[in-house]
Amino acid sequence: MQSDVKLTTQLVAVGGDSAGEISSRVLDAISVANTLQITDQDGMASAASLITQIATYKTRVEKLRKELVLPHRNRVQEIDDLFRQLSDPLSKASSSLETKIMGYRAELRRKAQEEEDKRQRLAAMKQKLLDQGKIQAVIVPAPIPAPDPDLNKTLRVSGGGAITTREDWVFEITDPLLVPRMYLQVNEVSVRLAVKSGERTIPGVRIFLEESLVKRGRRDV
Questions:
Q1: How far apart are CA 150 and CA 146, in angstroms?
Q2: Which of 37, 112, 137, 163 might form a disulfide with 155, Cβ 3.0–4.6 angstroms?
């Protein structure tokens, strides 16, 4: 097929003759596998033989790929490590500033809440005195409180930048035993490890035998 020829040519350009040779072998094996029909014991033996051959080819393909990629991967890793020395401190600096901003805003809210509590206490005390007739009511228009600019959701900075705050509903699990079943998830990793370790009875779990093929590559291909 033309696409197979193109693939082999591209692999030769990348990995040389060894890549071209393994490409030809792999493409032949794939062609045989796609057309092989199993109707008797001989057919099953041929399929089994081809499976082990494919396993070997997969190992060789992966080995060659790693050999070709390794030099580039090492260089990419060096570049990543170099720039990470800039990006990581930047992320930490930003996180530190965000923590300070949120702490400051929390303190503003705390003080505002204290003022509101104080206002309510004074209002309650005044109402009590009015009810007791100890003072006379004087109608004074209630002042409209101006919004605190420090608690605006959007913090605009020079140069056109801005930071916007928002509120999201989050959660914290305080007692796992009280969490409804619909929010729980079976730990399949633990179940699998238990079954492999010999556990054969787990309530709500069906444990059974399942046949599969174990492949081992050939040394003559």
A1: 11
A2: 163
